[in-house]
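so my prof wants the structure for this chain in the tokens format not the other one, which i didnt know existed until like an hour ago. anyway here's the sequence
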Amino acid sequence: MTQHRTPSAEELEFLKGFYRALGDRPLEPDDSWYVALYQDEELAASDPVEQLATAIEWSALESTHLFSGFRGTGKSTELRRLRARLRRTGRHVVVLCDMVDTLNLGSPVDAVDFLIGVAGAFGDALDADPDLLGHDPGRESYWARAVGLFRTLDVEVGGNLGVASATLKTNLRKDPTFRERLREWMDGRLGALVDDVHDYLKSCVAALRRKHGDDVEVVLLLDSIEQIRGTSFGHAESVYSSVEALFSNHAESLRFEDIHVVYTVPPWLKIRSPGIAGEYGGMQLLPCVRVRDRATGEPFRPGLDALERVIGRRGDWKRVLGTRARLDRLLLASGGYLRDLLRLLQAVLREARNRELPVGDDVVELALHEVRNSYLPLARHDAAWLAEIHASGNPELDVHRADGDEANLYDLSRFFDTHLVLCYRTLEEWYDVHPLLLDEVLRQAGERRS
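here's what i got, hopefully its the right format
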């Protein structure tokens, strides 16, 4: 049993610094903490970022692509690697926009507010970065242009809501009543909005080429779209359906002349909408890191070693845990899901504050229970389906046919969004239950069968 004690000032500083280093934030590829997980052939059959870069380089002037993966697997970091990779060619001007600043990620999304958000975010990014364009008082933002379009179309935006270019961005993101009324007002006028957004983006491309050269190609990376999710059964299903409808029904409107666009999308999209990748330039998936061999269930050493490097870059884990066996226990429990791996180590560090270093197995156990408890309790009907997914590595959409296909698709989307199910890739994609939940899943499934 680990003994409680008062740590030295030096130990507290070490633990605090290590804890802060485990914070979940996007990294640039030249950051000292960055580990090239997806460029290692032992971990992945192909590099999704290199696949995206090649598709963009080999497409003539414009293309659209989907980039998928679970939240917390490093998509924002890998988009920054894609940006750096393309910038090195000298032929690409790359604009990265975080759509969390312009979309409400907890509400259904519609083509109207999505297109306005894309154009507004693109213009804001150009205005904010002198290396792209920089601020020009004479250049109109899309927020101002959209208000002018509304007036031209006789859309009621004046007296009723007092909307102006300065408040449109905020209203779209924070005011659900405004979004609903705007969608109603724009009913039957979507074509005019699409044309106007496309014209605005075309003018932005022209401005970029005047500054950077006529031969440059423009790449627009739109991050955080995959984070759109609902908060309750009925509400969540409407949110999921809205994302599916946006990318399935408006693919043509989401292609822009002379721009390569990458949209981040949730991994459940291609299951809810089979063939969606064919509507775009394909879909690249950022999987979790394999920590076990799919066929044998044995620890997958290359994956564990790669994750050890992720932790080792941020702090001296040996000083905290003492043995590689304790670290491996945390690595295996994370399922190769980076966000939970960081959470597990932070839980260990909090417990280590008043303990002898290195900590004992009891502290590791406490950390595992803390993160596991964040996923519990688990409904019995969920456990039954999750057990089937664990057994086959497939979504098993027919397990609950009595509940109807739509409910299954909703639940599967929920499993992905809450990380009850994780996705991996060798030559094919496959799925498994989060290791922290597996014992509980199998226990409940066994009780149900008996």
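also thought this was worth mentioning. The two ends are 38 Å apart (CA to CA).
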